[in-house]
Structures are given as structure tokens and as C-alpha cells.
């Protein structure tokens, strides 16, 4: 599903530049649940933004579902982004004056889906995340965990090939974090390819494979079983 080869990315600020990704290689197969782990500033969001086509690498190659992602014009890039990718962020990014249902339905409007189908799909995905009864509530009436469920339903409603989540539990307490990760595991069990960025060890351990990023390089890429075995050596 995802192939990246020798990816580099620097940020330039005036005469200063910061080499954030220094040659990243990894592949993700369809149906995997992978975490990208690393301390704050290690380049996790930079990498996820490139995978999400929100930013471009300086060097290297990226293939998403057999499509080489390079020098695409903005229109085609936007189409691939909408067709292939779903996003979940730490800060939920919901629209405050719209109900949970309308938040989930909105991206479908931009895909040209009819009103009836939009609300059916939105209702279906809200039910999937356990929020059927909360459809008509505003984000301000929901807990943090519920807001993140709405954001997950919104991402799923577009039926993306890959779900990208940047610190999805970063704003949640421990118990709620585990509940949201349970939901993400369930979605993966149904076959969805999911990448979760996190700096928290216990969250990473709720995925199946941990890619560890440090100083712009992958220093470890192992299944959770392998990581556990290493810890007991
Ligand atoms: P992480 O998500 O692992 O915390 P980031 O990818 O957000 O790390 O950032 C990696 C490094 O790049 C940090 O030092 C950060 O300050 C820097 N950085 C991130 N985005 C930008 C930007 N748009 N311009 C300049 N520097 C940036
Ligand atoms: Mg980040």
C-alpha cells in the first residue's frame, strides 16, 4: 500500500536549515496497523504529512497504492488525498457549529455525494464508532473521547484506503486513550490499513508494528511481539 525509499526533508528558515528526515525507508502492506514512534521533534508529523500528501519530500520516492506520488498538480493531488487518505489529528479539528452528523457528512459533500447518501453514510459511521445517540449534538456537548470518535467516523466515511492518525490520543486521558485505540484496533480488524503517530510507548504497543524514529532515521522497525521479546532479554 505504501512504499517509501530514501525520503529526505529539510525545513529552511532564513539562513538556517533543519534536516528532519535523513533517508527514511519503509513499506506498509494493506491491512497493517503500524505506529510511528519517537520523541517530540523526531520528525513523526513531518513524515505523516508527507505520507498524507499534505507536504512533499525533498528527495526520495513515495508510492501509494501503486501510484507514484511526485510532482502531481494540486488538483490531482487533492483527488488522490480525498480518495486514498483519511486523517485524524490530536486536536480533533471538528467544526464547532455543526452537529456530529454534519461534521461526518461534510467531506462527502465535497465528493459530490447526494444529501440522502451523505446522511445515511454519516449515520452509519457514527453508529460504527458508538455515537448513534449523539448524532445531533454539537462538539461542545461531547467529551474528548467522543470528539475523537466523531473525527474517526468522519475519516472513515470517505472510505479511504489508508487512515493516518497523528497523536490521536494526545489530548485524551489514559483510559479514554485506550478506548480510542480499541476502536482503531477494531477498524483495523475489519481490514483497514492504519498508521498511528505517537510518542507514547503504551499506545504504540496497541498497534501491531512499531517503527521507531530518532534523529531523522528509523532506528527500529519491529512487530510488537519482537519488541516485547527484546524487552525481556
Ligand atoms: P514530531 O511530530 O516528531 O514532534 P515534527 O515532524 O513536527 O516532529 O518536527 C520535526 C522538527 O522539525 C522539529 O524540530 C520541528 O520544530 C521542525 N519543524 C516542523 N515543522 C516545521 C516547519 N513547518 N518549519 C520549520 N521547522 C519545522
Ligand atoms: Mg508531531
UniProtKB/TrEMBL annotation:
Residues 2-233 form the ABC transporter domain. The keyword Nucleotide-binding applies. Keywords: ATP-binding, Nucleotide-binding, Translocase, Transport. One of its GO terms (molecular function) is ATP binding. Signal peptide: none annotated. SMART domains: AAA. It comes from the Bacteria. Pfam families: ABC_tran. PANTHER family: CELL DIVISION ATP-BINDING PROTEIN FTSE (PTHR42798:SF6), LIPOPROTEIN-RELEASING SYSTEM ATP-BINDING PROTEIN LOLD (PTHR42798). Belongs to the ABC transporter superfamily. This is ABC transporter ATP-binding protein.
Amino acid at each position: 500500500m505504501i512504499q517509501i525509499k530514501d525520503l529526505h526533508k529539510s525545513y529552511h528558515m532564513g539562513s538556517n536549515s533543519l534536516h528532519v528526515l535523513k533517508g527514511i525507508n519503509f513499506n506498509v502492506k494493506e491491512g497493517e496497523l503500524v505506529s510511528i514512534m519517537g520523541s517530540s521533534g523526531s520528525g513523526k508529523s513531518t513524515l505523516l504529512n508527507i505520507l498524507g500528501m499534505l507536504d512533499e519530500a525533498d528527495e526520495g520516492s513515495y508510492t501509494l497504492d501503486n501510484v507514484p506520488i511526485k510532482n502531481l498538480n494540486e488538483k490531482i493531488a487533492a483527488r488522490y488525498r480525498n480518495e486514498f487518505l483519511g486523517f485524524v489529528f490530536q486536536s480533533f479539528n471538528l467544526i464547532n457549529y455543526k452537529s456530529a452528523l454534519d461534521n461526518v457528512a461534510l467531506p462527502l459533500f465535497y465528493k459530490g455525494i447526494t444529501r440522502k447518501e451523505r446522511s445515511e453514510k454519516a449515520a452509519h459511521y457514527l453508529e460504527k464508532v458508538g455515537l448513534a445517540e449523539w448524532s445531533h449534538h454539537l462538539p461542545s456537548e461531547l467529551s474528548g473521547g467522543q470528539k475523537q470518535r466523531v473525527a474517526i467516523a468522519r475519516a472513515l466515511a470517505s472510505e479511504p484506503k489508508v487512515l493516518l492518525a497523528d497523536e490521536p490520543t494526545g489530548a485524551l486521558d489514559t483510559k479514554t486513550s485506550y478506548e480510542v485505540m480499541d476502536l482503531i484496533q477494531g477498524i483495523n480488524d475489519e481490514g483497514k490499513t492504519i498508521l498511528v503517530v505517537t510518542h507514547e510507548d503504551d499506545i504504540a504497543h496497541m498497534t501491531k508494528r512499531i517503527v521507531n524514529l530518532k534523529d531523522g532515521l528509523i532506528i527500529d522497525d519491529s512487530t510488537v511481539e519482537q519488541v516485547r521479546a527484546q524487552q525481556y532479554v
